[in-house]
Amino acid sequence: METRVLDGNALGGVLLELFGVELTAAPCTCGSCGNRAELARLDVYLDCPGVVVRCHHCDQVLITIVRGPERSWVDLSGMRCLEQ
Ligand SMILES: [Zn+2]
């Protein structure tokens, strides 16, 4: 099965629902290579058990989002910084 890779704009609705603000234009810094890019420019994998967001430069996992029926789990440990 081919893996679909979308850009960070695919995250917009999920992030807005979770955090209540539009974050696709927010720059983040990769915790591995230090690359700084807007969330809209990251690679998003939706065909996973959850959502996985990777650095477009080095492929480091920056964000994982797992959604359950009553709550969500967001792991941001792969990124060094998110600016808003
Ligand atoms: Zn990186």
Key words describing this protein structure:
84 residues; mainly beta; 5-stranded antiparallel β-sheet; 3-stranded antiparallel β-sheet; 8 strands
List the topology elements.
Layout: E1 5-7, H1 12-19, E2 27-30, E3 36-38, E4 43-48, E5 50-54, E6 61-67, E7 72-75, E8 79-82
Antiparallel strand pairs: 1-4, 2-3, 2-8, 4-5, 5-6, 6-7
Name every ligand kind in the structure: zinc ion
The oligomeric state is single chain
The averaged pLDDT comes out at 92
| DSSP helix fraction | under 10%
Describe this structure in words.
This protein is mainly β and 84 residues long. The chain is built from 1 helix and 8 strands. It has one helix at 12-19, and strands at 5-7, 27-30, 36-38, 43-48, 50-54, 61-67, 72-75, 79-82.
Summarize, please.
With 84 residues, the protein is mainly beta. 10% of the residues lie in helices and 43% in strands. The radius of gyration is 12 Å and the shape is globular.
